Amino acid sequence: MDKYRFIEVYDEDGVRWIYFNRPDKLNSFNNGLMNEVIDVLEEGGYWAIIFSGRGKVFSAGIDLAELASYSDPIDSGKLFEKLSEMVNTIFSLDVPVLIALNGDAYGGGAEFLWLGDFIIAPKGVRIGWPEARWGLIPPFLPSLGRYTLGLMRSQYLAYTSGYITSEEAYKLGLVSILIESLDELSKAVDNLLNMLKNNSPDSFKSLKKYFREVKKDVITMYGVSELIRLGRDYRVIDRARRFIDQKVYPSYDWG
Question: What's the pTM value of the predicted model, to 2 decimals?
């Protein structure tokens, strides 16, 4: 499938690989990429989905350059609404969703991990949540993070825009499979898919529905709506614009 501009899509034996393909932009999520992900998922014709990225970074989350291009906070809010639409599309899938990390994941890229049923990561990868640096929040870390990383660690990461390594994420339970290097990624994916084939697809769908209800609780959905509210603010646009134009990070007065 070569009709996409911001992603690459490959089908093999009913498995659909979706690669974020904006390596020069750290595979950040712009409207175009998110629309393409939604479209390719709605096409159907697969029994498993695998997300990965081109280049050295899985994804840096929301595209700050696109955010900086807006003059109206209503438009910036729509960018985060599109993110919510992509999230809900992935959440609604009843097939296995694998995330094969090719590199670091930050912001929305790190939050994307909560959408996966399985996460495979090489050693040395960084997973970070810098949203508060930009006046935003990670919508899933405060809710889903408490189940895996623990409440206090999740608070620390959210409040300080901190990160963990893939080794830490594996020990804490966020990463399903830890591999030595990126060279082992395809083999690890194949092994996992073969393990899944030994089990009932009906059982998987039932279990996935159960886990989905746990993930999409009231607190999680509140986080999504709060992110949209914070994104609909001219100050967020200004911070992004100053960074894109002048490479100036935001600063704040706590009084």
Answer: 0.95
